[in-house]
């Protein structure tokens, strides 16, 4: 019967291969995307995605002091393991289905990188505004007590804009954002980077909304053609203008100043912000006048727009006449 031995051995090997293949095909899948990072030098976390959401996965770890001894994760949450306290040795973290603990089945491992720290958002971001600057101050992210461990970046935008501007990276705990628009709402956020982890930033802080203070209004008041009403030797002149555009007000517009100048006298008029015309009565027809119109708020006023009112001796003594002014527009 010796001729049957090779056949029997071949059959046994084939059967074992088939059993191993079936066992391999029925293995619980390993976890995916195992990642470890620290919030600070004494708080690290490893996270993963279950290969099968119906199966419980667990994490264990070992370090160079005893590579043969595995520690169970003491702070185990859903698909995460957290480590607290200073870690001084190289550490390997492994994740696998709970049913396979103690075997090498479906195990994934990662080395804990001490420098892979992604800080939590910095704390106590406060903003003090001027008309054109925002002065920001803050303190470190939780868990950092030594200086110069973190670098910071601020970003800011007008509250109604979708586009952000960013500051340079700084090591200090304050920064002045310059060149802003007065009396404008801005949104400001801050995030941190661990100095040894280039290019990897933590999450942004919650936004701080702040309004810059009022500033001098800008531009010129757009003036309109004037109307002149002749009354024998005197005339009444109506000067008009358009409202100062909102973007130029840079604060709460309080009104308009009109300075009337001639060789004989100077007169000052002031009208509220909702008024855009002024009737000046009793001007002499044989005298040139110049009106200077400026808008003002609580901080200051615009440069004046100029309306020239020339003599009108060559105009008929009666009726209503319109004379176009010399205007300066924005």
Strand order of the largest sheet: 1-2-6-5
Report the sheet-strand fraction. Answer: 35-45%
First-to-last CA distance: 113 Å
N-to-C order of helices and strands: HEEEEEEEEEEEEEEEEEHEEEEEE
**Number of strand segments:** 23
Mean pLDDT: 87
Global geometry = rod-shaped
Taking the sheet with the most strands, its summary is: 4 strands, antiparallel
Strand-pairing-aware structural class: mainly beta
Radius of gyration based on Cα positions: 39 Å
**Separate helix tally:** 2
Share of residues in helices: under 10%
Notable traits:
330 residues; single chain; mainly beta; 23 strands; 8% helix
Description:
With 330 residues, this protein is mainly beta. Helices cover 8% and strands 42% of the residues. It is built from two helices and 23 strands. The chain has a four-stranded antiparallel β-sheet, with no helix packed on it. The N and C termini lie far apart (113 Å). The C terminus is likely disordered.
Explain the layout of strands and helices:
Blueprint: H1 5-25, E1 32-40, E2 43-49, E3 57-63, E4 71-72, E5 75-77, E6 80-84, E7 91-97, E8 108-111, E9 123-129, E10 134-139, E11 150-158, E12 165-166, E13 174-177, E14 185-194, E15 208-211, E16 226-231, E17 234-240, H2 246-249, E18 255-261, E19 266-272, E20 277-284, E21 289-296, E22 305-309, E23 320-323
Antiparallel strand pairs: 1-2, 2-6, 3-4, 3-7, 5-6, 7-8, 9-10, 10-13, 11-12, 11-14, 14-15, 16-17, 16-23, 17-20, 18-19, 18-21, 21-22
């Amino acid at each position: 019967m010796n001729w049957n031995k090779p056949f029997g051995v071949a059959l046994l090997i084939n059967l074992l291969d088939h059993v191993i293949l079936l066992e391999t095909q029925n293995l619980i899948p390993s976890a995916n995307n195992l990642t470890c990072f620290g919030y600070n030098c004494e708080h690290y976390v490893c996270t993963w995605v279950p290969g099968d959401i119906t199966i419980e996965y667990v994490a264990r770890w070992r370090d160079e002091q005893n590579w043969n001894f595995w520690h169970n994760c003491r702070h185990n949450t859903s698909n995460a393991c957290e480590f607290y306290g200073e870690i001084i040795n190289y550490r390997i973290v492994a994740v696998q289905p709970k049913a396979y603990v103690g075997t090498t089945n479906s195990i994934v491992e990662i080395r804990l990188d001490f420098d892979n720290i992604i800080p939590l958002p910095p704390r106590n971001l406060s903003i003090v505004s001027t008309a054109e600057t925002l002065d920001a101050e803050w303190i470190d992210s939780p868990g950092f007590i030594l200086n110069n461990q973190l670098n910071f970046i601020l970003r800011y935008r007008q509250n109604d804009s979708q586009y952000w501007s960013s500051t340079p990276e700084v090591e200090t705990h304050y920064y002045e954002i310059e060149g802003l628009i007065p009396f404008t709402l801005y949104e400001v956020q801050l995030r941190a980077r661990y100095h040894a982890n280039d290019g990897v930033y933590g999450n942004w802080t919650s936004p701080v909304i702040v309004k810059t203070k009022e500033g001098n209004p800008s531009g010129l008041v757009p003036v309109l053609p004037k109307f002149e009403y002749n009354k024998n030797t005197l005339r009444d002149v109506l000067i008009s203008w358009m409202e100062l555009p909102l973007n130029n007000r840079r604060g709460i517009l309080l009104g308009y100043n009109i300075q009337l100048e001639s060789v004989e006298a100077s007169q000052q008029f002031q009208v509220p912000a909702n008024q855009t015309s002024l009737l000046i009565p009793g001007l002499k027809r044989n005298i040139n006048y110049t009106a200077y119109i400026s808008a003002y708020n609580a901080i200051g006023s615009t440069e004046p727009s100029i309306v020239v009112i020339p003599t009108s001796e060559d105009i008929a003594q009666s009726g209503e006449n319109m004379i176009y002014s010399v205007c300066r527009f924005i």
